[in-house]
Amino acid sequence: MSLISIKNASKIFQHRKPRMVLRDRLRQFTSKPGKEGFYALRNVSFEVEARESIALIGANGAGKSTLLSLVCGLAQPDEGSVEVHGSIAPLLELGSGFHMDLTGHENLYLNSAMLGMTKAQVRQRYDSILEFSEIAEFIHEPLRTYSMGMSLRLAFSIAVHCDPAIVIIDEVLGVGDAAFQRKCHTRIAELRDEGKTLLCVSHSPETVLEFCDRAIWLHHGQLLMDAPAQEACAAYMRFVADPTLPLPGMPSPEN
Ligand SMILES: Nc1ncnc2c1ncn2[C@@H]1O[C@H](COP(=O)(O)OP(=O)(O)OP(=O)(O)O)[C@@H](O)[C@H]1O
Asked: In what residue span(s) does the ABC transporter domain sit (predicted)?
C-alpha cells in the first residue's frame, strides 16, 4: 500500500489570498479563475511509496503549499481524494501551536503532544530536543521573550524528534542562522537515510537534488511532470530561463 495516495485531487478557493492579489493580477492572462472558483490545485494524482523522497517544485502560487496542507490534513480536497497511511511530522508553519505566554519548556510539552508524542516519549527525548535547539538556557523563559529564530529552532527540534513515518518540509530549511541551517540539512539527510519518507517544497534546485530522488512539477495547480529529480529540475529550470518554451505535456504556444 502507498504511504500517500492522491487521486484527481482539486482544491478550489472562492477568493484568492489577499496577499497574492497583485501577483495574481499579473498572472491573469494565464490562470483560469472561472466562475466556479479558483483552482489552486486541479486534478492532481500521484502515489508516494515508503522511503521515497519527493520534492514539489514550481513557481510562486503553483499550488505546492496547498498540496502539502492537503497531505497534512490541514485542508480537505474539494474534488478527488488524498489518503495518508502513517504518522506525519509537518515541518511547515513551524511553531503554529506555540503559546507566547507559556515558557519554552511548557510549549515543548504541548507541541510534542500535538505532534503525537506521549509524555514518556517527550521525557525521554527532552535533553536531545534541547541540545539540538541550542536554546537550553532560555527554556524556562516565556516564548514572547524569544526571537523568531529561537522559536523556530525549538519548533524544528521538536518536529524532527517525533519519529514520524513521513516528514513534510515547506521551505523550513531557511530556519535560523547559517550554522543552524546546516544542522537542519544534516538532520533531514539523516531522517531520509533512516528510511523516512520525505515530501518537501523548495525553490532551490540544489536543495531538491540534495534531498530528493523524485520531483513533481506543479504549474498553475496542475501536475506537469513527475520524474527523477534531476530530470524534473532540469526541465523546470529550462522553463524558468525561457518561459516561451512549450510545457511538458502541453501543446507549444504556436500550435
Ligand atoms: N487560503 C487560501 N485562500 C484563497 N486562496 C488561496 C489560499 N491558499 C492559497 N491560495 C491561492 O492558491 C494558489 C496556490 O497557492 P500556494 O500557496 O499553494 O502556492 P505555492 O506554490 O506554495 O506558492 P509559493 O511558492 O509562493 O509559496 C495561489 O494563487 C494562492 O493565491
From this structure: 24-245
Domain end point (choices 137, 164, 191):
164
| Whether residue 87 has pLDDT greater than 50 | yes
pLDDT for 191-223, tens place per residue?
A: 889 889 999 998 888 889 988 999 999 999 999
Decide if 252 is inside a domain: no
- Tell me the residue type at 200: C
Per the DSSP assignment, residues forming a β-bridge with 11 are 41
For residue 66, give the ligand 1 atom closest to its CA: 18
Tell me the per-residue pLDDT of 4-51, one tens digit each, with 9 for 90 and over. 999 999 999 987 655 554 455 455 445 454 446 899 999 999 999 999
Q: Are residues 80 and 172 in the same domain?
A: yes
Residue 159 shares a structural domain with residue 62: no
Residues 2, 77, single domain; the answer is: yes
Instruction: Indicate whether 179 and 205 sit together in one domain.
Output: yes
16 close to ligand 1 (CB < 6 Angstrom): yes
Q: Which atom of ligand 1 is nearest to the CA of 31?
A: 29
> Residue with the nearest Cα to atom 16 of ligand 1?
63
Alpha-carbon dihedral 9, 13, 17, 22, rounded to 10 degrees: 100
ipTM associated with this complex: 0.97
**Ligand 1 centre and the CA of 62: distance in Å?**
7
Q: Burial-class residue 105 by CB neighbours within 10 Å (0-12, 13-18, 19+).
A: middle
Q: Point out the ligand 1 atom lying closest to the alpha carbon of residue 218.
A: 21
Domain containing residue 116:
96-164
